[in-house]
Design goal:
alpha+beta, binds iron/sulfur cluster, two-stranded antiparallel ribbon, about 80 residues
Length: about 80
């Protein structure tokens, strides 16, 4: 999963206006936030942010990380 580093985000809006990821949301101050329930960890956001604000989340709940490792898509 990815997260937005708040001190790097400049609230430019590129990620939530021009990029179509349902996990990225705008918060009150115009900065971006990643909904951890929707993020699939594809890393596309890391490539489109002009201020390098998206990073892999360091504080991922181990139970959730384990579930993501063993989850198999339905046929
Ligand atoms: S593109 Fe980057 S700097 Fe701009 S709002 Fe999104 S996270 Fe913040
Ligand atoms: S890693 Fe992928 S799914 Fe997660 S916020 Fe970035 S673009 Fe969206």
């Amino acid at each position: 999963m990815y997260e937005v580093l708040e001190d790097r985000c400049r609230a430019c809006g590129v990620c939530y206006n021009a990029f179509n990821c349902p996990a990225i949301q705008r918060v009150e101050d115009g900065k971006a936030w990643v909904d951890p329930l929707l993020c699939v960890g594809c890393s596309e956001c890391e490539q489109i942010c002009p201020f390098d604000a998206f990073k892999p989340a360091e504080d991922v709940d181990e139970r959730w990380a384990k579930l993501m490792r063993i989850a198999v898509p339905r046929p």
